[in-house]
Design brief:
The complex is a heterohexamer, with three copies of chain A and three copies of chain B. Chain A is of the alpha+beta class. Chain A has two helices and seven strands; from the N terminus they run βαββββαββ. Chain A has one domain: Alpha-Beta Plaits (2-Layer Sandwich), CATH 3.30.70. In chain B, strands 1-2 form a two-stranded parallel ribbon. In chain B, α2 packs antiparallel against α3, α10 crosses α11 and α12 runs antiparallel to α13. Classes of the chains: A alpha+beta, B mainly alpha. The structure holds adenosine-5'-diphosphate (3 copies).
Chain lengths: 118, 448, 448, 448, 118, 118
C-alpha cells in the first residue's frame, strides 16, 4: 500500500475529486494547509508592513493499493494542473499496514469494499 | 439588455399615447409653522442609525457568501463606501439629489447651493416631510437619513463583481456611479422638483432609487467583467454561513429604520410601514424555505436568508402604500420569482452575478415597484391608490419609472465600466483571483 | 412532572381556601381621548425592533454553544420561527391572544374578530396601555411589539432538543405549540379579559408567558426526545464561544426593548424597568463569575454569559414592579439557583437539555415570577405590591400563575410530542445525529 | 511621562499667569417647571442602549485583533467590566461622579448622598440637561446613560495589556481605577460642581473623561507590565479580522448614541452632533485608507477600521461644538497623527500597547480635546467658541484639562499597578502567556 | 519507530483519548480533516443543488516505539469502532528518526520521558 | 527524499520560517494541530469542570532531498527550541517519489527550481 499526499490549489479541488472518482478512487481525506512559497507578499498591520507570505492550499491524503498508485497519480496531475506556478506537489510514501476500524480487517482488504472491487 | 430597452420604450409610448401624464403634483399645502418635534426626531435619529447599520450588515451577508480568501475584500469595499460616500454626500451629493436648480435641469438634478451643506443650520426644519406637516424633524436629520441610503445603494452592487475586481477600479466606479447615477435618480424620484416625482411615481423607501438602480448596475457589471475563473458556472460554497445569517438578521433589523423611517415621523404610517415590512419579509423567507423543501426535500439556511432579503427589497417601495394583503402577496411573489431567477434563469443565461445582486435586488426591486402600482390602497395614504383600488394609471407610471431607471442606470454603468476598464483597469490578474483578493489587494488574511 | 402537578394543585387549593381571589380587576379608568403620541411611538417602534433582534441574538447564543456540525440547524430553526410565527400572529395569533370573545371562552382565549388584523386601521390607538392613559401608541405598534414576543418564545425551546430533532417534526411542533400554548397563555395573563390577569397575576414583560412557558416545554421535550448519543452525559464543547458572547451581548441590548418597552411608553416607568433590568443582569452575570471562581478557580466566558441571560430572564416579570433592592436580590438568587440547576441538578437527574433552556429560562422564569410577588413595591407602580410591601396575596397569585402555566404548557407539550412522534417522527436517525444536522437536514455546512 | 508632566505644568502656569481663570460658570438659568418629555426620553433610552452596545462591540473589535488563544480573555474582561461597573455605579459611582458634596471636596468629588440611588425616584426629572431646559428626561435615564460611559472607559484600557495580564489583577485594577480615577475625573468635567467644568472646559461626550483618561492609563499599564514574550516588537496577526470589522461597525453605530445622545434631547443639537460624528469618522477612515494606499500600495481592512475608531474618538469631545469644517479637519488630523503614532512612533519607543489603546484612544482623545478648543463655533451652541472663532482662552482651558487628566490618571494608574503587582500579581506566567490565557485563565478555548 | 495515523469519528475522540491513556500513550497530535465517502449528500445553494458530500473526521497522528505499536492500534480499534459505516481507518508507516526539540534527544529516547517509562 | 514533520510552538513559527530560509529551504507546508500533553488543564462548561487539555501546535511538513536533511533538522531544532516543556518533536520518514504537478517532473528534480539550486 502507498500513501499519496498531494498539495493542490483549493480551486482545483472539484476537478481532482471528480477525476479521482472517474478512476475509481472513492475514499480520501483532505484538509487545509498553508504553504510557504517564493513569491513574498507584504502584510500590513495598522501601517506596519511585514513579510509573511503564505498561500492556502489543500492537502489530500489517499492510501491506495500498489496497483492503483499510478493511475491515481496521473489523475491528480491531470486534474490539478493549471500550468502556472503554485500547482503544488505529490509525494509518495510507503504504508506498512492498514486497518479498517469498523471490522478490524487488515491490509489491502481494508481499502476496498468486497464485491465492489473495480 | 435589448429586451429591457424595448419594453420600457413601449411603456413610455403607452403612457404618452394614453395622455396619462397629468401633473398630479403632490404640492405642499401651505402649512402654518413647521417646528421640530422631539418624538419624530427621536425616531428619525434612530432610524438613521438603523439604516447606517445595514451597510455593515450587508457586508456580513455578502462576506459570508464569498470564499474565505475574499471576505476582507467585501468588508473593505462596504467600509470604504461608507466613508467615501459620506464625504461625497456632504460635499455635493445632497445638494444634487435634494437641492433645487433653475431652468432646464430643475427636474433632473439639483445645483450646488447646498454643497458642503452650505446655509443649512442646526435648527432648520426639514423641508421634506411625508406624514406630518407641522411636527417635523431637523433638516440635518433628513440629510443624514438620506446619506445612509446613498451609502447602501452602491454597496449592494458589490455582490455582482465580488471575488474578481480591482479595488482601485471598484473605487473609481463607485464614486462616479454615485455622482452620475445615484444622485440624479434620487432627484427624479424623491426631490420635490423631480420629474418622476411630479409624474406621480411612488417609491416609499427606495425600490427604484435603491434596488432597481443598484440591481441593473450589478447585472451590467457582472456581464462586462465576466465570469470567475475555473468554476464552470457551479456556485462556490459560502465560507461562513453564520455570517450570512448575522448579516440577514441585522439587515432585517436595520430595514425597520429604512422603511418605517421613510415616513419621516413616528406615527401610524410608520407603524403600518413597519408592519408590512415585517410581514412581507416573513412571507418571503417562509416561501423560499417551502420552495427549497419542495425542490430539494430540505430547507437551507442560505435560502431562507436570501428569501428574507428578497422580501425586504420588494416591500421597500410599497411600504407606505399597501396593506396586509398586499404585503403577503408581495412576499410570495418576490420569493417565487427570485427563487427561479437565481436557481434557473441565471445558470441558463450564464452570467456570473456572484452574490445575486441583480437576481435579488434588481428583480426584487422591479417586483416591488410594479406591485406598488398594483396593491397601493388609499386605506394607508388617502392620496395614493393602485390598480386594484381602481387606478391603473399608477401601474403605468410605476412601469415607466422602472423602465427609465433600468435604462439610465444600465447605460451609464456600461459607459463607466468601459472607461475604467480602459484606464485604470478593472479585473484582477488570474493569480490574484486564484490566491484571493484579501492578500493581494489588502495585505491581510481574514482568519489566522 | 408529577411533583409539579401536585404542588401547583396545592397552591390552587390554598388560594381558594383562603378566599384570596377577589376580582382586583385593574379596570380601565374612563379616559378622556387617547391619542397617538410621537414620543411614545418613537420609543415603542424602536423597542419592537430591539425585541425582534433578540431572536437572531438567541440564534447566535445557542448556535455558538452547539457543535460545529449543528449550528446551521439552530440558526435555521430560529429564522423559520421568525418567519412562520409572524404569519401566524397576523393571521390568527393576535386575535386569539389579545382579542376578546364571548361567553365561557372569554377569560381563556380570544376569537377571530381580529384575524388578519381585520378592522384595525392605520390610525387606531392602542387599546392596551400601561403607564400613559392618553398619550398612547398606534394599535399596530402594539401588535408588532407583541408579535416579537410570540416569536422569541418558541425560539427559546429550541435549546432543549438541539442537535437531534427532525426539522419537520420541530416545525409542526412549533406551530401547534404557538397556537395551543402560547396564544392562550398570553390571553390569560395579558389580555384585559384573561383570567389570570383579572386575578391580579403580575407579569411585566413575560416571565410566565414567555420564560416559564417555554422553559417547561423545553424540559418536557428534552425528557421525551431522549439524550444525545454517545455523550454519557458529559457536556459537549461549544464550537464558537465568541458567537455565544455576541448572542449574549445582543440579547442584553435587545432586552432593553423587551422590558423597558413593556410599559408601552417613554416615561419614568420605562426608565425604571431599564434600570432594574440592567442592574439585575449585571448582578447575575457577576454572581455567576464569582461562583465559577469559587468552584473552579477561574471565571468562564460561557458562565458569565449564561449568568447574564439568567438575570435577564428573572427580572423580566418584575421589571415594572421592583426597585433597586429587588433587582439586586433577583440577580443574586437567579444566578445561584441556575448555577446549581445547570451544574449539579441536571447532571444528577440525567436529562439532556442541550443548552439549558429549562435550566436557565424555566428556572429563571419561575424565580422571577415568584420574586415579583415578593419584591413588588408601590414605589414603582402605586397599585402593585408584593410580600415585602405587606401584600402576601400577591405571592400566592404569582405561585398560582406559575403553577398553572407549568401544568398547562407541560401537558400540552407532552401531548404534542406524542402525536408528532407517532406521525411525522421527531428524532433524527443515528447517522444524521452523528454526521450533523446541517448537512442532512439543510444540505449545508457552516464553515467552508 | 516626564515630558507630559512638564508640558502640562507649563500650560497650568500660562493660564494662571494670564489670569484666564474667571469663573465662566455656565449657571443654570432659573427655569419654570421642567417635565419629562416623551420624545426626548424615547431618544435617550435608545441612546443609552446604543452606548451599552459599544462595550460588546469593543470586545469584538479588540477580540478579533488578538491571537486565537486569547480572544475569550478579552471578551471576558469586557463582559465582567459591564457587570461589575454597573454595580459599582449604582452603589456609589454615580453619587461620587454626579452628586454634590460640601466644603473643600465639592469641586473634586461627590459624596454618598445618592449611594444606591438613594432618594431618586421614578418620576424625578433629570437635574442635568444640555439643550432643553424644560422638556427633559427622567433622572434615571441620565444615570443609566452615564453608567454606560463608566463601563466603556475601563474597557478601553484592556487593549493595552491584552494577552499577558492576570485576570485577578486586571479585575482589581479596573475596580480601583473606576473608583479612584474615572469617578473623580467625571466629576471634575461633567458635574455642575466640577472644577474643570466651572473653569469652562468643554467635553461634549467624553474626550477627556473617557478617551484621554483611558488612553494614558493604557500607556502607563503597557509600559509597566512590559512587552509580550518572543515577539521582538513585530506585531501579531489578528486572528479574526471580520470580528474586527463587526466591532468597528457596531462601534460606529453605537457611537451615534454616545455623541448624539450627549445633548440629552432629541433636537437640532443631537442632529448636529450626529452629523459631525458621522462625517469625522468617515473622513478619518478614508484618510487612513489613503495613507495605507500611499505607504503600502493597498488599503487594509484593519487600517480603515482603526481609522474609523480614531475618528470617532477625536470627534467625541467636539461633537456638540463644531461644524462641518471642524469635523472634516478633525477627521483628517486624527487619522494622520494616529497613523504615525501607531506605525512609526510606537515601534520606535518600543512599548507594547497590544491593541493601541493609547495610540488610538489616548492620542485621538488629546487631538479631539485640543481641536474642540480650536474649532468650537457659536453657530452650534451660541455660548461656546474656540480659537478660530476668536476665543483663544478656550484652547488654553482645553490644554489644561488635557494635561491635568494625563497627569492625574497617569499617576494614579502607576500607583495602582505597583500596589497590585506587589500583592496579587499582575502578569501571567510565561507558560500561560505561551499557551494562551483562554485555557489557563478561563478553562475554555474559543473555537472547537 | 512507527507512525500511526488514524482517521476517526469526531464523536469518538474522548473515548479514544481515554483508551490511549489507559494503555500509556500520553502524547499525540490531531487535527480536523474532511473525508470523501461513498454516501453522497446533496448540497443546496439558493435553489441549486450540487453534489459535494464530505464528512468531518479527526486525524490522529501518533509516533510510537515499535514495541508499543500493537497495543496502540488495538486501543484505537476498540475505542473508535461503532460498527457503522464510517468508523474510519488506521494506517501504519515507518519513522526513520525522531528528535525532541527541547533537548535534541534522538530516536526512541525522544519518545518517552526517562524515569517515567511504563 | 525525506519527509520532515515537525510539531512546534505557534509562537516560534516566525523564527523557524526565517531560519529555514537562511539555510535555503524555501518551500514547506504547515497547518494547525492540537496536541495532547501530560499537563492536564481543567475545562469549565457552565459550572461543570471536565478534563480535556489540549494545546495548540503547528505541524510543519517539509520534503527535502536527502542531502538537505541534516541542515534542515538542525535549523528547526535551533529555532524552535525554548528549553521549556512543550517544544515539540521532529519526525523523519522516507519519501519514495515526488512529482511537481505543474510540469510532471519527478524525483529530486521536482523539489528544486533548476538554475536556482543553492
Ligand atoms: N518540499 C515541499 N515540502 C512541503 N510542501 C511543499 C514542498 N514544495 C511545495 N510544497 C507545497 O506546495 C505548494 C505549491 O508548490 P509550488 O512549488 O509553489 O508550485 P510549483 O511546483 O508549481 O512551483 C507550496 O505552497 C507548498 O505548500
Ligand atoms: N484510502 C483512504 N485514504 C485516505 N482516507 C481514507 C481512506 N479510506 C477512508 N478514509 C477516510 O476515512 C473515513 C471513513 O472511512 P470509511 O471507509 O467511510 O469507513 P468504513 O471503513 O467504516 O466504511 C473517510 O471519510 C475518509 O476520510
Ligand atoms: N509521539 C508523539 N506523536 C505525535 N505527536 C506528538 C508526540 N509526542 C509529542 N507530540 C506532539 O508534540 C507536542 C509537544 O511535545 P512535548 O512532548 O509536550 O514536548 P517536550 O518534548 O518538550 O516535552 C505535543 O503536544 C504533541 O502535539
Amino acid at each position: 500500500m502507498k500513501k499519496i499526499e498531494a498539495i493542490i490549489r483549493k480551486s482545483r479541488f472539484n476537478e481532482v475529486k471528480n477525476e479521482l472518482q472517474e478512476v475509481g478512487i472513492d475514499f480520501f481525506s483532505f484538509w487545509d494547509v498553508r504553504g510557504i512559497g517564493k513569491s513574498r507578499q507584504e502584510r500590513i498591520y495598522r501601517g506596519i508592513a511585514y513579510d509573511t507570505s503564505t498561500i492556502e492550499r489543500l492537502m489530500i491524503s489517499i492510501i491506495v493499493r500498489d496497483k492503483n498508485l499510478d493511475k491515481t497519480v496521473k489523475a491528480i496531475i491531470a486534474s490539478a494542473s493549471t500550468g502556472n506556478i503554485g500547482d503544488g506537489k505529490i509525494f509518495i510514501s510507503d504504508i506498512e499496514q492498514a486497518y479498517r476500524i469498523r471490522t478490524g480487517e487488515m491490509g489491502d482488504e481494508s481499502l476496498y469494499i468486497k464485491g465492489e472491487e473495480e | 439588455m435589448k429586451k429591457l430597452l424595448y419594453s420600457s420604450g413601449i411603456t413610455f409610448i403607452i403612457i404618452l399615447l394614453s395622455g396619462l401624464v397629468p401633473l398630479m403634483a403632490q404640492e405642499a399645502t401651505p402649512e402654518p409653522k413647521p417646528y421640530i418635534d422631539a418624538g419624530n426626531t427621536a425616531w428619525m435619529i434612530v432610524a438613521t442609525a438603523l439604516v447606517f447599520l445595514m451597510t455593515p450588515a450587508l457586508a456580513f451577508f455578502y462576506g459570508g457568501l464569498v470564499r474565505r480568501k475574499n471576505v476582507l475584500n467585501i468588508l473593505m469595499q462596504c467600509f470604504i463606501i461608507a466613508a467615501a460616500i459620506t464625504l461625497e454626500w456632504v460635499i455635493i451629493g445632497y445638494s444634487q439629489a435634494f437641492g433645487s436648480s433653475e431652468g432646464f435641469l430643475k427636474p433632473f438634478i439639483g445645483d450646488f447651493d447646498w454643497a458642503f451643506l452650505n446655509g443649512i443650520s442646526i435648527n432648520d426644519v426639514s423641508p421634506y416631510y411625508i406624514s406630518q406637516a407641522e411636527a417635523r424633524i431637523p433638516h440635518i436629520v433628513f440629510i443624514l437619513f438620506q446619506c445612509m441610503f446613498a451609502i447602501i445603494t452602491p454597496a449592494l452592487i458589490v455582490g455582482a463583481f465580488a471575488e474578481r475586481i480591482k479595488f482601485k477600479g471598484f473605487f473609481i466606479f463607485t464614486l462616479l456611479w454615485a455622482l452620475l447615477v445615484y444622485n440624479p435618480v434620487a432627484h427624479w424620484v424623491w426631490s420635490a422638483d423631480g420629474w418622476l416625482y411630479k409624474l406621480g411615481a411612488l417609491d416609499f423607501a427606495g425600490g427604484t432609487v435603491v434596488h432597481i438602480n443598484a440591481g441593473i448596475a450589478a447585472l451590467v457589471m457582472a456581464l462586462l467583467i465576466g465570469k470567475r475563473k475555473g468554476l464552470n458556472g457551479s456556485p462556490t460554497t459560502p465560507h461562513n454561513i453564520p455570517f450570512v445569517v448575522l448579516g440577514a438578521g441585522l439587515l432585517w433589523f436595520g430595514w425597520f429604520g429604512f422603511n418605517a423611517g421613510s415616513g419621516l415621523a413616528a406615527d401610524g404610517l410608520a407603524a403600518s410601514a413597519f408592519l408590512v415590512t415585517h410581514l412581507a419579509t416573513a412571507t418571503a423567507a417562509f416561501t423560499w424555505a417551502i420552495m427549497d423543501w419542495i425542490f430539494h426535500r430540505m430547507p437551507s439556511t442560505v435560502g431562507i436568508a436570501t428569501g428574507a432579503v428578497a422580501g425586504l427589497v420588494a416591500i421597500t417601495p410599497a411600504a407606505g402604500f399597501v396593506g396586509i394583503g398586499g404585503a403577503i402577496a408581495i412576499g410570495v411573489i418576490v420569493s417565487l420569482v427570485c427563487f427561479f431567477a437565481v436557481s434557473h434563469i441565471k445558470p441558463k443565461l450564464g452570467y456570473d452575478d456572484t452574490l445575486d445582486a441583480f437576481g435579488v435586488h434588481g428583480v426584487g426591486g422591479i417586483i416591488g415597484a410594479v406591485a406598488t402600482g398594483i396593491f397601493a390602497t388609499p386605506a394607508i395614504q388617502g392620496a395614493y391608490s393602485g390598480l386594484l383600488s381602481g387606478n391603473p394609471k399608477q401601474l403605468l407610471i410605476q412601469l415607466l419609472a422602472t423602465g427609465v431607471t433600468l435604462v439610465y442606470s444600465g447605460v451609464i454603468t456600461f459607459i463607466l465600466f468601459k472607461i475604467i476598464d480602459k484606464t485604470s483597469g478593472i479585473r484582477v490578474d488570474d493569480r490574484i483571483e486564484e490566491e484571493g483578493l484579501d492578500i493581494y489587494e489588502h495585505g491581510e488574511s481574514a482568519y489566522n
